[in-house]
Amino acid sequence: MHELALSEEILTILTENSRRERFERIVQVTLEVGKLSGVEPESLRFCLDLVFRGTVADGARVVILEPPGEGWCFGCGASTDLPEIGASCLHCGGGPVDRMKGSEFRVLAMDVI
To answer: Domain map of the chain by residue range?
Structure first.
């Protein structure tokens, strides 16, 4: 489960910001986890709950935004929705389709006190 390792990295980012900016507590963390990122949002949420315990982020609300996949078809030159990696173009049924959006994985914001 790579979500645990990702959760630990997120906590490192939050902790470093806490030290640098001198805030006491994180009350909300907003993450962007693209549909094509390979990260399971509910598993990530579970792991974050575990690694946040006893830290500056203990009890923080986790908001996960899930941008959809989008690609560009080499066959017809159209931008197309990409429901999964390796999917065919929804316009022409061909491809290959180059992934343009949906693989994002980042901390977007944190609300602190």
So the answer is: 2-112
